[in-house]
Design goal:
The chain is mainly alpha-helical. It folds into two domains: 46 residues, no CATH class; 59 residues. It is 52% helix and 3% strand. It contains four helices and two strands. A two-stranded parallel sheet has the order 1-2. α2 runs antiparallel to α3.
Amino acid sequence: MVLNKVDLLANNSPRAIAAGFDTISISALTHDGMANLDKRVITLADNFSAADSSDQIAINARHADALRRATSALESAIQHLTHYGPMELLASDLRATLDAFGEIGGRIDNEAMLDRLFSTFCIGK
């Protein structure tokens, strides 16, 4: 937990506020504690491992499908680059890759969402 504005505290001791949490106290105004924050972020980044079994990443079916589409589009883009294919097709493959990653990241294309929704069932009278 990062506690900012410690320069405003009279006793400069925010520990009681965040009891039980690993905290770093900083002041963005005076830059006090920023070196400690930098070190902590670097340590956490260096210790991050995708193979760490304690932090499993759950991928839902929609994300898995988007990853398959992104992989396929990238493979096609590589083929167009390797064989000097038309730039329009390369651009289309790269756009498809970005769109797939956008779905995973939360960017929603309303038209595509509606197309998928209505392709899965029939609305009758």
